[in-house]
Amino acid sequence: MAETDIKAPPLREYPCIPMLVPGAMAGVKPYVANEKVQEEIGFPGKLVDDWHERALAKMGELLGKYRSLKVFMDACVHCGACADKCQYFLGSGDPKNMPVARQDLMRSVYRRHFTLAGKLFPSLVGARELTREVLDEWYSYYHQCSECRRCSVFCPYGIDTAEVTMAAREILDSVGYGQKYSNEIIAKVHKIGNNLGLPGPALENTLEGLEEDIKEDTGIDVRYPLDVKGAEVLLVTPSADFFAEPHIESLIGYGKVFHAAGISWTLSTKASEAGNFGMFIGNYEQLRKIALRVREAALDLGVKRIVVGECGHAWRVAYAFWNTLTGIGAGAGLAKSDPFAIQLQSQLDHRYRQPMHICEFTWDLIQKGAISFDREANDHRVVTFHDSCNVARASRMGDSPGGQFEIPRAIIRACANHYVEMAPGTTHEQTFCCGGGGGLLTDDLLDLRIKGALPRMEALREVADEQGVNFMATICAICKAQFTKVLPYYGFNMSMVGGVHQLVSTAIKLGDK
Ligand code: SF4
Ligand code: SF4
Predict the structure, then answer these.
(1) Does position 513 have pLDDT exceeding 60, yes or no?
(2) Are 480 and 487 in contact (CB under 8 A)?
(3) SS3 of 166, please?
(4) Best substitution site from 79, 105, 165 to test ligand 2's pocket, by max atoms within 8 Å of Cβ?
(5) How does residue 437 score in pLDDT terms, banded at 50, 70 and 90?
(6) pLDDT 10s digits, 330-343
(7) CA angle 355-396-481, nearest 5°?
(8) φ, ψ at 354 (rounded to 5°)
(9) 98, 151, 434, best to mutate for ligand 1 pocket (most atoms within 8 Å of CB)
(10) CA angle, corner 270, sides to 183 and 232, nearest 5?
(11) What pLDDT score was predicted for residue 16?
(12) Dist. CA 65–CA 72, nearest whole Å
């Protein structure tokens, strides 16, 4: 379907449970990865002949390795509390996009092959054989889940559909049925260093161009250093920040913060990507290999601190997994056994949290009075904040519970006079995914992305109409790219989305350090 033929569903008053439209999204699926890409990252090039045996063997391996997956397969009582909580169900009405139904795609196969009742009386316990049709259904509906974890907030047993989706994608990859978009990006990171495939010289050019633009705008020499050995801080940020709009406005903001506070910093060509699509495909080896680039860069450059830019899933990986993947982080899980982790731990400055989110970094400087703002510079904006799912439900920030909600809002309030919250039930822990997370930010899934954005668009429409909101801030590169694309389908201007550090950039007072 051509992009111009895709129509957004009509906005409704929130909350609204849609009419069921069975099969509405049955034909929706992303492009399958080609042989070259699959093999480059260590998976079979195409669907293997013995896919049935291999898929079940992989499933057995994952059930043994991840206790949570086995609990999730067994514990669901079909209470229905999660049924109307997924943005893809709310936007499409397809009952298979209810989280419980999405889990059941795998649970039915689990029952057939891994439970006694399912082996003896399959039809009595809803057990299904893993047929080619079922495998195709997995490919379709496990790529209609952004792994946002919203459903798990409402499940009385804490069942996390995101983990089920990750397991399904890992099984699909293991039999040669991988997704083009995510796997191409992973291959690009291994080869070039970032999701966008920007080589070192292109990064250098971009950063030089930024320095010239800022000098022209402000008269001040704000630096965007690359690969500087001995810098205090290594900033690891999504590669979209180097290139895409509005992402680059936040990169400009980070540089101004470092400049105003007088702290030396550097970006790195080796660690020119904070994102880690290894998590989206549920594959530990890819997750670790990508994360290790950051450790290598930190060791090469001899930095004392590692700060992560505005990217939701990158912060989840850094906050929750870097510890055991790389030895960066609280408790430094690997530090006792891995010589590189030991070396890094002796190098990093333990007076600071490691890793640190750029919002924690900026908020700390605000509280210390090291940076200040001309808030009136943002007076043309009435700002609201979209909590990004991976930050909201899979990480924290700062020293207090809920810091991941409060710190970005505190920064916005420090640099803008007009701030408005969207409706309760659509923010904080219960925020909706933007619709493009979890490896779905590809144009072959545009129809799904537009439908998945519906609940957020409804909440935004309310504050735009009633309170004049004209800027939605967020701290995720995927949210920024997704909203830029889908806002016009809902009658909004694409430029009304931007980063928290875009607001910082507009209002920060630049000293002459
Ligand atoms: S997209 Fe989010 S709410 Fe929907 S099933 Fe997946 S994890 Fe649950
Ligand atoms: S809320 Fe939990 S127990 Fe209830 S149907 Fe959903 S996954 Fe199953």
Answers:
(1) no
(2) no
(3) helix
(4) 79
(5) very high
(6) 665 565 678 888 89
(7) 85
(8) -135, 125
(9) 151
(10) 135
(11) 77
(12) 13
